[in-house]
Amino acid sequence: MKVFKLTALAFASTLALAGCGSDSDNNGSNTPTVPTKPPVDNGLSESEQAKEMIRTAKLFVSDNKAVTEAYKGASDILTEKQEARLSYTFDVPNSLHYYMQENGLSQLKATDIIALDNDQEFNNTLGDFVLTPESGFLAILNADGQFKLSGTTKVVVKEYDYIYNPNTGVYNETLVSQDTFTSAFDGFENALSSNTSNTSFNGGIGFKSIKIGSGTDAVTLSSTTKGFTVNGQFSDKVVVDDEFDLNDVNRAGITLEKATIKLGNLKLSANDSVIEAKDFEFAALDISKKLKDGQLVVRTIPYKFAVTGKMTKQKPSTDVTITLNATANDADIKNFLTVTDNGNIEETANKYVGMEVILALQGKVAKEGATATIPLDFQANLKRTARNVVELRGLTASVDGKTLFVTGKTNLDNDYNAVSTQFIVEQNKASIKLSVDANGDFIKDKMGKLGDIMVNGKDYGDLMDNKGKITAVFPNSNGSVDTIIL
Length: 486
Known about the structure:
This protein is α+β, with helices and mostly antiparallel strands. Helix content is 15%, strand content 50%. The chain has helices spanning 8-12, 46-70, 80-103, 110-115, 120-126, 330-336; strands at residues 107-109, 129-133, 138-141, 147-165, 170-190, 198-206, 209-212, 219-222, 228-238, 256-270, 273-290, 296-313, 318-328, 337-339, 345-347, 355-366, 373-386, 389-399, 402-412, 418-427, 430-436, 449-455, 458-466, 469-475, 481-485. A six-stranded antiparallel β-barrel has the order 5-6-9-10-8-7. Strands 14-15 form a two-stranded antiparallel sheet. A hairpin with a 5-residue loop joins strand 14 and strand 15 (345-347). Helix 3 packs across helix 5. The longest helix has 25 residues, at 46-70. It is globular. Mean pLDDT is 82; it is low at 1-32 and 246-250.
C-alpha cells in the first residue's frame, strides 16, 4: 500500500478546480447546486461599493498569506517514521493473505507464525520485516477468498542496501535502517477477491481499528462502518483477484460495465491531528474497441468522485471541512467517447461528455502567533456547457461577513488546453472583468491596467499591475486619487 503525504495546507488553503461537461441533461439527483449571488448592501454609495469590493479582495489576499505562514512548519500530518509504519502495517495482512493463498492455508495462529521464523518462503513473502505476534493473533482465509485478521503483533523492520567498499571492490549488504513497533488489528477484513466466476462482484475491505506504535508516535485508524465496499458488473463471467485492478486491459475481452467504490467513514488520528473521510464514492466504466488485428482495447473511464473530509488540529488550531463532488454523465461516456485505432480516447465530432463539479470548504484556521482565527467559507460550481467551453457558474468566497461572487468561462482548443479565461468578480453592484491568457497570466494593457472597477455601468477606478505590485486606483472629483494596495 502506498502512503501519500497528508498536508494540512492542502486542506486549509490549496484548492484546485477542473471540469468537463455535456450534451445530455440527465445528471439525476447528483446535480450540484449553483452558488447564488449574495444580497446587495444598499446602505453603501456606488463609490463605496467599488472600494468595498477591493477591500474584501484584499482581506482574501491577506488571509491566504496568513494561512501559508501558519502552516509552513506544520504541513505534514504524519512524520516519515509514521508513514513508513503505516505502509508496513498494511503489508502485514497483504503478505499473510498471499502466503496463505499460495500454500492453501485456512488459518495462521501466533504459534504457526513463530514456527515459520526460519522458513525461507515465508520470510521472502514478508520481505523487510519480521513478525512476533502476541497470543490471540489470528489470520483466517475462507474458501470464498475472504481474509480476516485480528490481534497484535510486534513488527521489526530492517532495510538493507548494497554499499560499495572501495577497499575490497565489493558491494556489501549493509543495514541502513531499523525500526520496531506494534500493530494491533481489530476486525480487519479483506474481501476483494472471489474464487467464483461471475458477472457481478461485491466485496470490500474494512476494520474497526488499526493501532500502530505507541506514545507520541502512535497512529490510529478507525471506522464505524465496514470501510471500503466494491461493486462491479462485467460483460461476462470473471474471477476477481485481490487487486480488483480497474486498469488491467488484459481481461480476455471482458469489460467492466460499471464499478462503484464507496467508503462509509474512516478516521486517522496522529500527533495533534484528526482526519476524517466519509461519504466517499468513486465510479467507473469501460469503453472498448476491437482493432483490425482482433485485439480488444479496453479503457476504464471514471465518471464520479465524491468525498467529504474533515480535519481538526491543535497547533495551528484548525477545524476545516471540505466537500468535493465531480459527476460526469455516464450515458455521455457510452455514447460520445470512442477508442481510436491507436488506442487513444476521443469524443465524437460535435459531441461532448457532461460533467459538473462542486467544491465547498468551510471552517477556520489560526493565524500564526495570534489567538485570532481565519474563517473559511468557500463554494464553487463548474460545468462544461459546450465542447470547448467550461463555465464557472458561481463561486462564493466569504470573509468577515463579506462575500465576493465570481463567474467565469474558460475556452479550450481541440486538444482541451485552456487558451483563454474570463472572470467577473462582483460584490453588491460593483464588478470587475479580468482575463487570463493561455499561460495562466492575467492580461493587462500597456499601462498595466487589469480591468475597470464598475458600478451600475459607471467606471469608478482601475485595477493595476505594476511589475507584480497590484493596486486599485480611485480618482476623486477634486483631482486626488485614493489607492488600495492588495
